[in-house]
Design goal:
alpha/beta; Enolase-like, domain 1; TIM Barrel; 10-stranded mixed β-sheet; 13 helices; globular; binds 2-keto-3-deoxygluconate; binds magnesium ion
Length: 412
């Protein structure tokens, strides 16, 4: 067989998604997620102008070779745009291989290593009562692990706090945070790290007092602290036994993690903005992290993230694949197949998509008792309804950004 067609589909049911659909001469189709939140059309151009022409007539069975050709052959390596495009091709080819074999992708990756994947959801609230309600709502939905984000006194709009009036398709209020907003310019939020560091430990103390010692709790610091501030945060949170502290410092300066690590035993997770194994190499080798946060969609696909996670396994470092709503149902399915197969699975981030998204993407993964499973349909198990997709054209949307009280732009 050879590849007959490759189509780039942009749709915006609840938010923008970029999907690659590859069709073989025999009519077998495969889907890949290429969504790069807030920069979607850059990947569309990369795929349409530079990748799709190379795929037509290629052998869809040669997944590793295609990956190496697209990565090494371009000369220009790495970067979120390139790696999201390669990821979409890689996922689509695994989807096709599964359909041709009549097997779910996790079987091709070695079979299931567990019965289901522990998932965490996003609870948030500006004040404690609202946060507690959000935690309770997540427990009622079956979550067995919960990320805690909270308001900080004196700050009006900050990362990770849901707008309860947000209509994400189901028409009902949700506690999940949808950071990208449609509009001509990014929304400005405010930030003060010292106020945050003073406030957060008390929030975790209150959550532990209310919900007890068992519940795994996570927190995303979203790249906002200096190394020494992050070290203090990890230390101050130790009594509350976090499952992980995520992105405690900006990801570019990896040496920072050495300083943080030398001060705290709070487990560290990093890497949702990383895009190759090389971004993780030193952090894994020097055992400076505990969880790899890379997404299949942003790390060059199943082929590349599998290699990174196998390397991490040698150091007892586990997966914690990125899974907010800007990972499409296709990217989520890829994460679930990979997570089910590897031995060093840690936890899977899972924010439910809205109803409109579920109408565009027919998914076969299941969610019960706090565990996800990719299902047993051949391939990735996700199909796209093109008519429904066309009903939701692209709309420009941006992630917000931060300024300090004196107007300085701060890390997001
Ligand atoms: O695209 C950016 C979002 O995915 C990000 O804000 C979500 O930090 C995030 C997380 O941990 O899910
Ligand atoms: Mg994060």
């Amino acid at each position: 067989m050879t590849i007959r067609d490759a189509e780039v589909i942009v749709t915006s049911p609840d938010r923008n998604f970029v999907t690659l659909k590859i069709t073989t001469e025999d009519g077998v189709t495969g889907l890949g997620d290429a969504t790069l939140n807030g920069r979607e059309l850059a990947v569309v151009a990369y795929l349409s102008e530079h990748v799709v022409p190379l795929l037509i007539g290629a052998d869809e069975a040669r997944i590793e070779d295609t990956w190496q050709f697209l990565y090494r052959g371009a000369y220009w390596r790495r970067g979120p745009v390139t790696m999201a495009a390669i990821a979409a091709v890689d996922m689509a080819l695994w989807d096709i291989k599964g359909k041709v074999a009549g097997l779910p992708v996790y079987q091709l990756l070695g079979g299931a290593s567990r019965t289901g994947l522990l998932a965490y959801g996003h609870a948030s609230g500006k004040e404690l009562p609202e946060l507690f309600d959000s935690v309770r709502a997540h427990l009622e939905q079956g979550y067995r692990a919960i990320r805690i984000q909270t308001g900080v006194p004196g700050l009006h709009a900050i990362y990770g706090i849901a707008s309860q009036s947000a209509d994400t398709g189901g028409g009902t209020a949700r506690y999940d945070h949808e950071p990208a907003r449609r509009g001509a310019r990014p929304v400005q939020e405010d930030w003060d790290t010292r106020a945050y560091l003073r406030h957060l430990p008390g929030v975790f103390e209150a959550v532990r007092n209310e919900f007890g010692p068992e519940l795994p709790l996570l927190h995303d610091a979203h790249h906002r602290s200096t190394p020494i501030q992050a070290a203090r945060l990890g230390k101050d949170l130790e009594p509350y036994d976090l499952f992980w502290l995520e992105d405690c410092t900006p990801a570019e300066n990896q040496e920072a993690l050495r300083l943080v690590r030398s001060h705290t035993t709070t487990p560290l997770a990093i890497g949702e903005v990383f895009n190759t194994a090389w971004d993780f190499k030193d952090l894994i080798r020097d055992q400076l992290i505990d969880y790899v946060r890379g997404a299949v969609t942003h790390m060059g696909g199943i082929t590349a993230l599998r290699k990174t996670l196998d390397y991490a396994a040698m150091y007892q470092i586990k997966s914690g694949m990125h899974g907010p709503t800007d990972i499409s149902p296709v990217g989520m399915a890829a994460a679930l197949h990979l997570g089910l197969a590897i031995h060093n699975f840690g936890i899977q981030e899972y924010m439910k998509h809205g109803q409109r998204t579920d109408e565009v993407f027919q998914q076969s993964f299941t969610w019960s008792n706090g565990l996800l499973h990719p299902g047993d349909k051949p391939g990735l198990g996700v199909e796209i309804d093109l008519e429904a997709a066309r009903a939701h054209p692209y709309e420009r949307a941006y992630l917000p950004y931060n300024r300090l009280a004196d107007g300085t732009v701060h890390d997001w």
